[in-house]
Design a protein that fits this description.
two-stranded parallel sheet; two-stranded parallel ribbon; 106 residues
């Protein structure tokens, strides 16, 4: 596919701890491997920056956000906070595409 503008796509994942980094980097590489173009892959540790801060910054740098979402969230947690997808959609001013992925939060 042809990219518009700078011709670069950033693909990112927020991890909970450093033990997830290698798996996250491999997952991002595998995700972009089948496409042509310039890709930036970025893994960010949630202990250094919150998901909200990360998403807020990304919205200033990019024109479109694709957000991986999973339905495997525990039911009890839904009473305490809305799903991340709802939080993002309600806060950002750029278009958001939701991509369902089993186990996306893992």
């Amino acid at each position: 596919s042809r990219l518009v503008g700078k011709g670069a796509v950033s693909v990112s994942k927020v991890i909970s701890n450093e033990s997830e980094r290698r798996s996250a980097e491999k997952g991002l590489f595998d995700l972009v491997d089948g496409f042509s173009g310039r890709f930036e892959t970025r893994v960010t540790n949630a202990s250094n920056v919150s998901r909200e801060e990360f998403i807020s910054k990304a919205c200033k740098e990019y024109d479109l956000m694709l957000l991986g979402a999973s339905t495997d969230r525990p039911v009890a947690s839904r009473f305490f906070s809305p799903p991340m997808v709802e939080q993002v959609i309600n806060k950002v001013e750029i278009p958001v595409v939701i991509v369902h992925s089993e186990g996306a939060s893992r």
